Amino acid sequence: MNKTVEICPAKKLLEIFGQPHVLDIIHTLAGEVWGFNQLQQVTGVNSRTLTLRLQLLQTEHIIKKVVCPDDARCRYYQLTSKGKKIDRILKQLDSV
Q: Closest Cα partner for 54 from 28, 72, 31, 73?
């Protein structure tokens, strides 16, 4: 008899959160919009790793890239509504 085993729905998120610097990026973006260079300075993440983590978080719809209204060449990052929910959950876990 073949049984299908359901994977815990939180497993994917935990795999994402388990990657280095992901939680730091989410925490940094909470409540603010940051440019790439600003994020790099604040988090201390090298540019290649930061690029990969930002791409991952965008793919998962946790953050989004926003074009600066004054200069179309500028890009900023901010949490999506999903990212804000995740941030609230993380803050609740911090108080445990």
A: 28
